[in-house]
Amino acid sequence: xxxxxxxxxxxxxxxxxxxxxxxxxxxxxxxxxxxxxxxxxxxxxxxxxxxxxxxxxxxxxxxxxxxxxxxxxxxxxxxxxxxxxxxxxxxxxxxxxxxxxxxxxxxxxxxxxxxxxxxxxx
Length: 122
Description:
The chain is an all-alpha fold. It has a single domain (3-118), classed as de novo design (two linked rop proteins). It has 4 helices and no strands. α1 runs antiparallel to α4 (89-118). The longest helix has 30 residues, at 89-118. The two termini are 22 Å apart. This is Four helix bundle protein. InterPro entries: 23S_rRNA-intervening_sequence, 23S_rRNA_IVS_sf.
C-alpha cells in the first residue's frame, strides 16, 4: 500500500467513526466517548500526513509513533462504546478490525524504519 492509499484509508476511517459518533444515543458518556473517538481517529490520518512530510528518518519515526498512539487510543474508545452498551460490538466490529489493521501496518512500518535507522541509513 502506498502513502496516498494509506492517507485515503485513514481518512475514510475518521469519516466512518464520525458517523458512528453522530449516531450514538444522547447521554453524557456517549457525548464524551464520541468526541474522543472523533479526535483520536481524525488524528490518525492528520498525523500520517505529517509523517509523509517528515524531514528525516528520526522525524518520520517520531511522527509515526504518534499515529500508533492515536490508533490505539481509537481502539480504546471503541471498546468503551461497546462495553458501556452504547453500541453492540457486532455493529462496530468492522471499524475495530480496520483500526487494528491500520495499527498493525503502522507498527510494522515502525519496526522497518527503526531497523533502517540502526543501520545508520538516514
